[in-house]
Amino acid sequence: MVAHTHVVANPVMRGMYPDPSWMWDKTRDEIVLVNSSFELIPGLPIHVTRDLVSWKHVGDAVNAAMAKRLLIEGVEDSGGLYAPTIRRIHGQYVIVCTVARVNEERALACGCSPEDVEGCRASQGNFVITAPSLEGPWHGPYWIAGAEGIDPDIFEDSDGAVWWTQTRPALKPQWEGQTEVWTQPIDPSDWTLQDHKTVIWRGYGVNAVWAEGPHLYRVGDWVYLMTAEGGTSFEHSEMMMRTHAPQGFAAALAVFERNIAARDVWIEPAREGEHSVVGQYDRLFEACKKNPVLTHRHLGNSELIQCVGHADLLCHPQAGWLLTCLGVREVPGDEPGELFSYLGRETFIAPVVWERNPVSWKLEGEDPIKQDNDNDPGWPVVAPGLGRLPQALDIIADDNGELRLVEIAEHTEMNAEPEVIRYDDNRLIGVRGRDGYRFIRVDEPDYTVLAAPSYALMLHQDSTHAVTLRVEDRRVNVEITDRSETAHLELGVVAPDEWLGVHLFDNRMQFLAMRHAAGADGFSDDAVLIVHGDSTQARVLGEYDARFLSTEWAGGFVGCLAGVECQ
């Protein structure tokens, strides 16, 4: 069988595709990926791939009706759907997620039901949705009463037990920003939490803030816990821990608690009725001594891929272990160390191998002891030999297009081709607070978008950071909103057949006018947008500082969107 190699550049999902979670779906022989969507409706986009080269959007788990039940119309900026986890549990597709920053008064005013407002409050926004197939229909939401915090994980162990795991602010914090990861059995027949909460982690070290995005995995006789730490910004990182659990995770918890009781050790729980397995000297989970297993925080401000973390693992039957995570592509500013980002958090991937130390060294006495426990998988090594996210990957597939191997490749430049997007294209999405517009993700640091003459065009960071271009009596008017200030620019006259556009680059934006939509072939009167159009033939109407559209300036977690006004 002949092998074919394709080169794929990171990130594999460009523009605002944050908080990736994925799984190998043996029922479809495909990799399945879901991302956070914040205020966007529809939400929780689902993509599948067989080869990591071609990604197919098979649907969105949250449609308009589900979004109403999830109170999306009532969320604040950078609120909405956070950090989903997708798995198959007891034979069905399951996504667990959090809806965050809900303004209850606004939600009720938008027509959301009081029952869902109460369900959201009782679950702190944590819910489950299920489906018989990825294409839907998705059922729910099932509010998880008693859940606390954000970033839920769902894990089905080898004994059939199902565990709900997530992070919450530490109830008795030792430092500001400390969180704790807790777990609890859950009954998938009615999605109710069972027994009691058990705190299983509080961070890798002293002053380890925001241990979040937890995932549990079984690898042989071991259960591994992977968490992000440092917050989802420049100190972001990924940590790995594990516990020996050959008889199941529940049995490992019970054995640990019996052992410390036999030694008359008591670990104080965070509150009455809960348990804890994180003592001063006794812990259920052993941490990898090489933590973090992934980060870019040590590379400094000259590194243009920052904020790396919030990872998820899968095991492909031929290609082996793979990791997905988020990262942010930054644009250097004028000042040394100054960085700005416009795209939000994007989805990156990397190969993973599992390794153990080759020997166990002793300081005196016997010779080094060779490690020969074949049942011990060791610890994950992300992008072996590189120590950072690869810029590009060699994807080796067979004649049938089936993935066989993923290797680190030399960097490759991926030139974005112009795309004509019509108003009925499913890539155009809505966003809360801008019901009069439909949007597409800004997906390159050097980005051009053009809109048909009859449409207003917007670049949207959030409700208080946006740029709107429109033509009135053939005159181009630009409205620039930067927090509490609004500026208005008049940029002259355009011809009836000229398209309006914006070129975003190097922390600047140029306002453009161009006939024939950048020379794109095949566009017609029903075309709405052309993205990555060639701006070299455009007429520059004006220029403006774009930094107020960056995440660093505006705050929050989202990236820019380009949109056209509904008509």
Concise synopsis of the structure shown:
This protein is mainly beta and 567 residues long. Helix content is 7%, strand content 47%.
Question: SSE layout and pairings?
Answer:
Layout: E1 4-9, E2 21-25, E3 30-34, E4 40-41, E5 43-49, E6 56-62, H1 64-69, E7 75-89, E8 92-102, H2 104-109, H3 114-123, E9 126-131, E10 139-143, E11 150-156, E12 162-169, E13 179-187, E14 192-193, E15 198-201, E16 212-219, E17 222-229, E18 237-244, H4 249-262, E19 275-276, E20 286-287, E21 294-295, E22 305-316, E23 320-329, E24 331-332, E25 339-340, E26 346-355, E27 359-360, E28 369-370, E29 379-382, E30 392-397, E31 403-409, E32 419-422, E33 430-431, E34 437-441, E35 447-451, E36 457-462, E37 465-472, E38 475-482, E39 485-493, E40 498-505, E41 508-515, E42 527-531, E43 539-545, H5 551-554, E44 561-565
Parallel strand pairs: 15-19
Antiparallel strand pairs: 1-30, 2-3, 3-5, 4-33, 5-6, 7-8, 8-9, 9-10, 11-12, 12-13, 13-14, 13-15, 16-17, 17-18, 18-20, 18-21, 22-23, 23-26, 24-25, 26-29, 27-28, 30-31, 32-42, 34-44, 35-40, 35-42, 36-37, 36-44, 37-38, 38-39, 40-41, 41-43
Share of helical residues: under 10%
Give the low-confidence spans: none
Task: Kindly identify the CATH topology of the largest domain.
Answer: Tachylectin-2, Chain A
Q: Under the CATH scheme, which architecture of the largest domain would be assigned?
A: 5 Propeller
Q: Write down how many β-strands occur, each being a DSSP E stretch of 2 or more residues.
A: 44
> In DSSP terms, counting alpha (H) and pi (I) runs of 4 or more, how many helices?
5
- What Rg, in angstroms, do the CA atoms define? 25 Å
Beta-strand portion reads over 45%
**CATH homologous group name of the largest domain:** Glycosyl hydrolase domain, family 43
**Main beta sheet: strand number and arrangement?**
6 strands, mixed
How would the global form be characterised? globular
